[in-house]
Specification:
It is a single chain. This protein is α/β, with parallel strands linked by helices. The protein has a single domain, classed as Rossmann fold. The protein is 42% helix and 19% strand. It is built from five helices and five strands. The chain has a five-stranded parallel beta sheet with strand order 2-1-3-4-5, sandwiched between helices. Strand 1, helix 1 and strand 2 form a beta-alpha-beta unit. Helix 2 runs parallel beside helix 3. The longest helix is centred in the N-terminal third of the chain and has 13 residues.
Length: 125
């Protein structure tokens, strides 16, 4: 399985990459939504995108709207991983096509639970 991690924080990308690698994912990284779109053009479709909301150049919400408007990304699950905690923002992301929403800070267990909900995680041993 392939995942795309989109966050302007290198530290957050590293944390998410480690967690996803432990779940069996091959991980591609991008520092903003525009870089993520370019990465998808190069790598082809991925199974999962973990996307921060607040980034320069192109926000995670703009990335979400852009990819949900393209048929080639219909099968990609999108999980917003962000500090945006207002219910209106959560609902806005879900209405735009996000499959899950994780609020920072998060634990590996929370991420694993969300992956299981999406049918993409490994069951605990």
């Amino acid at each position: 399985m392939k995942a795309l991690v989109v966050d302007d924080s290198r530290a957050t990308r590293t944390i998410l990459k480690r967690a996803l690698t432990a779940e069996g994912f091959e991980v591609i990284e991008a520092g903003d939504g525009q870089q993520a779109i370019e990465a998808l053009k190069t790598s082809g479709p991925v199974d999962l995108a973990l996307v921060d909301w607040n980034m320069p150049v192109m926000t995670g919400y703009e990335f979400l709207c852009d990819t949900r408007g393209k048929r080639e990304f219909d099968r990609m699950s999108i999980m917003m991983v962000t500090t945006e905690t207002e219910i209106a923002q959560v609902q806005r992301a879900l209405d735009a096509g996000a499959n899950e929403y994780v609020m920072k800070p998060f634990t590996p267990d929370v991420l694993r639970e969300k992956l299981l909900l999406l049918g993409l995680g490994k069951e605990a041993a």
